[in-house]
From TrEMBL:
Keyword line: Golgi apparatus, Hydrolase, Membrane, Signal, Signal-anchor, Transmembrane, Transmembrane helix
A Pfam family hit: Glyco_hydro_99
Membrane topology summary: Single-pass type II membrane protein
Signal peptide: 1-24
Regions crossing the membrane: 328-347, 354-373
Protein name: Endo-1,3-alpha-glucanase family glycosylhydrolase
Protein's UniProt keywords contain Hydrolase: yes
Location, primary (coarse class): Golgi
C-alpha cells in the first residue's frame, strides 16, 4: 500500500467513521507567556503567592520539564518566552528549547525591547539580538509555529516604523516578527514592518472594560487586513499593587478566565495568548500555586475540551473582500474534492498538535485533494505540507535512535511496588513482595537502549502521581526521557489514570485516549490502551479499533511492533483474553510482526499466531513480559497453541534489536537466575 493511499484512507476514516467526539475540532493554539528571569532571591520581592514547586530558579531544568508537562496537560500549545540576549537568559532559553523539543512542545519569544525604566533599548542591541535568535533558532523545530519561529517585539510602540523595519527586515526570511501595539490605529502605523500583532493586555477587566471585545475585534480586523497573524490576549486576573499600581482584576474562582477566554475567541484569533504562566508579581499566573492550587489549569482544561467555533475565522482568506466567518470557509456547492481537502486539513491540525492556523485561503470546489491553504505569513512549502499530511491522529513522529539499522529497546511491565501501605488490602499487605524494580532498572541501564517500552501497571497499587514520584521515579524513572508507556489496570486506580498521565506527560499520549504511534528507526510502533472500558470499548467499530486500522494504513512499514498491557494469549494467572480479538485481527490484517504485553507476572513467548490463535508463519508473535519487579505469578496450563517459551519466578526485561527487515530478542534475567530465551525473526512479507 502506498503512503498516499494510506493518507487518503486515514482522512476518510477520521472524517466519516470516527464518532463525533473524535471528530471534534481541536481548539485554537494557546500560548502562555513564560518568564525565565527567576533567581531564588526573586521570590522575596513583590510576591503575595508562591509556586507549589517551591521558590525555584529559572536555571532548574527539572522545573522547566514539570512546567511543560503541566501546561500540555491543560491544553497549552506552547510558551511565549520573555527574552533578550544576556548570558543567563541565553543559557536558560537553550535549556528550555532542548526540553521543549524532546516533549514536542512549542516556543515563541516575546523580545523585551524596553529596559527596566520602560525606555527603548538601543536599536543596534535589538537588531543584534534578533539576528542572534535567527542564527540559533531559525530552523529549530521547537520554535516552528506558523512555518517559522515567532518573535513578539514588546514595546514596539516606543519605536518608529522605520526603526522596526530596519531591525526586523534582515531576519524576516526565517523569523516572523510581530508588534505589540495597543490599538488598531497603532498597528496601522507599523503594519508594513511586521508580520502581525500580539497585544499584551494583562489588566483586562470584563467589568471595567465592557468594550474589550470590540477593541480586540478591531485589532484583529486591522491585522488580518494586512495578512498578519493576530494573537488575542486573555488572563485569569491581575493585581498591580505590589508593583506600585492600584488596578486589581479579581479572579472570581475562574469566572474571569472563562469570560476573557470567550472575549479573545470572539476576535477571530490565529492563536490565543494567555497572560500568564508564571508572572507572580502581577498575579496573572496560572502555574499551580500555594494560594490557588491547580484551579486555573483545571479551568483551562475544561475550556480546551469544550466546543470551539467553526473553521471560518481560521480558514478564511483575510485579504479577500466580502468573505468572513462561515461564509469564507466553504464555497456553496462543495465537492468531494473540497471535502477531502478539509479532511486532510483536520488531519494535519490533529497530528502536528500545533495547528497551522495562520492558514489563509478559502477551501473551494476546485481544491485538489491534499492541498492546504497557504500560511498568511508565507506558509510551508509543498514538501513540508506533504510530510505533515503523512501524519495521523495521535501519531507522535520519529523518535531519536542511534542507528536505524539496529535499534535497541528494553521492555517490561508490572514494575514498581507501592512506596507506602496506604490503600493496600490486608492480603496485599501480608503477601511477600520482593520488589525487584531496582534490579530490573539496573538491567535496563546495562542494555543502554534507544527506547524503553513500559508495558503497564507501572506503579502499584493505584498509580497516583505521588506514588509514581516516590516509587517508580526512583528506579525506572531514570529512563523517563526515552520511555514510551502504555497504561494498565492499576493506572486507572486513580480517576482517568490521572497520576500516570501527569507523570509521563506528552509521552503518554492524549489522556482521553492513551493510545498513540511513532517511528523507531525503520519500524512503525503502536502503543495501545488495553483498558478499553475507560475509552469506549475494544471491539470492532470502537474508536480505538478504528484509529488502529487508520494508523496502520497511513503508516505502512516493512516492520511493525505493537504493545499493550493485557495479552490476547497467555498461559499465566489471568490467562487469554478474547476481548482483544478485534485488535488482533487489525494487527494481523496489516502485517504487524510483534506484540508486547504484560499483566501476567511471568515471561512467555508465542509463535506467530493468526487471529484465531492458530500457528501461522505470517501471523503476529506475542511476548508476555510482566516481570518488571512487583511480584511473580505462577504459570498455569500452557496455552493450547503456540506457547514456545515460559519462565516463572524470575524478574527481568526483554531486550530487542529492531533491524530494517527483522528483529532479535533476548530475555535478560536478574543476576543469579538460571533462565534464558533468545532468538530472531523476520518481518512479514504481507
Amino acid at each position: 500500500m502506498t503512503k498516499a493511499f494510506g493518507t487518503f484512507l486515514t482522512a476518510v476514516l477520521l472524517l466519516f467513521v470516527l464518532p463525533p467526539q473524535a471528530q471534534a475540532q481541536e481548539p485554537y493554539p494557546l500560548f502562555a507567556y513564560y518568564y525565565i528571569w527567576y533567581e531564588k532571591s526573586s521570590w522575596n520581592r513583590a510576591k503575595s503567592d508562591h509556586p507549589v514547586l517551591g521558590d525555584y530558579s529559572s536555571d532548574d531544568s527539572r522545573i522547566m520539564r514539570e512546567h511543560i508537562t503541566k501546561a500540555k496537560n491543560a491544553g497549552i500549545t506552547g510558551f511565549i518566552v520573555s527574552w533578550k540576549s544576556t548570558p543567563a537568559l541565553d543559557r536558560r532559553l537553550e535549556t528550555l528549547a532542548n526540553i521543549a523539543r524532546a516533549e514536542d512542545f512549542r516556543l515563541a519569544i516575546i523580545y523585551e525591547g524596553l529596559d527596566f525604566y520602560r525606555n527603548p533599548l538601543p536599536l543596534e542591541k535589538v537588531a543584534a539580538d534578533l539576528k542572534l535568535f535567527r542564527t540559533r533558532h531559525g530552523t529549530d523545530p521547537a520554535f516552528t509555529l506558523f512555518g517559522k519561529p515567532l518573535v513578539i517585539w514588546s514595546g514596539s510602540w516606543k519605536f518608529s516604523a522605520e526603526q522596526i523595519a530596519q531591525a526586523a527586515q534582515p531576519v524576516r526570511d526565517k523569523v516572523l516578527v510581530l508588534g505589540s501595539e495597543k490599538s488598531a490605529e497603532d498597528y496601522e502605523r507599523i503594519a508594513k514592518a511586521v508580520d502581525g500583532n500580539a497585544y499584551y493586555w494583562s489588566s483586562l477587566d470584563p467589568q471595567r472594560d465592557p468594550k474589550a471585545a470590540d477593541k480586540l475585534a478591531a485589532m484583529s480586523a486591522a491585522v488580518h487586513r494586512h495578512n498578519g497573524l493576530w494573537i488575542a490576549p486573555f488572563t485569569p486576573g491581575f493585581d498591580s499593587r505590589l508593583l506600585g499600581g492600584e488596578r486589581v482584576v479579581q479572579r472570581n474562582d475562574g469566572a474571569t478566565l472563562r469570560r476573557l477566554y470567550d472575549v479573545a475567541l470572539s476576535s477571530s484569533p490565529d492563536a490565543l495568548g494567555l497572560i500568564s504562566w508564571n508572572e507572580f508579581s502581577e498575579n496573572s499566573h496560572v502555574e499551580p500555586s500555594v494560594n490557588h492550587g491547580d484551579r486555573y489549569l483545571t479551568v483551562l482544561r475544561e475550556l480546551r475540551s469544550s466546543a470551539v467555533p467553526d473553521l471560518g475565522p481560521l480558514a478564511e482568506d483575510s485579504s479577500a473582500a466580502g468573505t468572513s466567518g462561515h461564509d469564507g470557509m466553504l464555497v456553496l456547492g462543495i465537492s468531494a474534492g473540497a471535502l477531502l481537502a478539509l479532511a486532510v486539513f483536520l488531519l494535519v491540525r490533529k497530528s502536528t498538535r500545533v495547528a497551522v492556523v495562520g492558514l489563509a485561503g478559502v477551501v473551494t470546489a476546485s481544491c485538489m485533494a491534499g492541498t492546504l491553504a497557504s500560511d498568511s505569513a508565507g506558509g510551508q512549502d509543498t514538501q513540508e505540507r506533504q510530510q505533515n499530511v503523512q501524519q495521523t491522529l495521535y501519531h507522535l513522529g520519529n523518535k531519536p535512535v542511534r542507528s536505524p539499522d539496529a535499534v535497541t529497546i528494553a521492555a517490561a511491565g508490572d514494575i514498581a511496588c507501592p512506596p507506602d501501605a496506604d490503600g493496600l488490602s490486608k492480603e496485599e499487605r501480608e503477601q511477600p513482595r520482593p520488589c525487584r524494580e531496582h534490579v530490573t532498572a539496573d538491567l535496563v541501564a546495562s542494555l543502554a537502549p534507544d527506547a524503553v517500552l513500559a508495558l503497564g501497571d507501572l506503579q502499584y497499587p493505584n498509580g497516583s502521581l505521588e506514588r509514581f514520584r516516590n516509587g517508580y521515579d526512583h528506579t525506572w524513572g531514570r529512563f523517563k526521557d526515552i520511555t514510551y508507556p502504555v497504561p494498565g489496570n492499576h493506572e486507572y486506580g486513580t480517576s482517568g489514570a490521572k497520576g500516570y498521565f501527569d507523570y509521563f506527560g506528552a509521552a503518554a499520549g492524549d489522556r482521553d485516549a492513551g493510545y498513540y504511534s511513532y517511528e523507531l528507526g525503520e519500524w512503525h510502533v503502536v502503543a495501545l490502551n488495553s483498558e478499553c472500558e475507560r475509552i469506549g470499548g475494544c471491539g470492532g467499530g470502537s474508536p480505538q479499533e478504528i484509529w488502529l486500522r487508520a494508523d496502520l494504513a497511513a503508516h505502512p512499514a516493512t516492520c511493525t511492533l505493537a504493545y499493550l498491557h493485557r495479552p490476547r494469549f497467555s498461559s499465566g494467572t489471568h490467562g487469554s483474553n478474547s476481548d482483544y480479538d478485534a485488535f488482533w485481527r487489525a494487527l494481523y490484517d496489516a502485517g504487524v510482526d510483534v506484540v508486547l504485553t504484560g499483566h501476567d507476572h511471568d515471561y512467555e513467548r508465542f509463535a506467530p499466531l493468526s487471529p484465531g490463535g492458530s500457528v501461522d508463519e505470517r501471523g503476529v508473535r506475542q511476548f508476555v513480559v510482566g516481570t518488571g519487579g512487583d511480584s511473580n505469578y505462577r504459570i498455569r496450563t500452557p496455552a493450547a497453541n503456540g506457547s514456545e517459551s515460559r519462565i516463572q519466578g524470575v524478574y527481568g526485561v526483554l531486550s530487542m534489536t529492531l533491524r530494517p527487515d527483522g528483529y532479535d530478542w533476548r530475555f535478560v534475567a536478574e543476576p543469579g537466575a538460571q533462565a534464558a530465551d533468545s532468538g530472531s525473526g523476520r518481518c512479514s512479507a504481507r
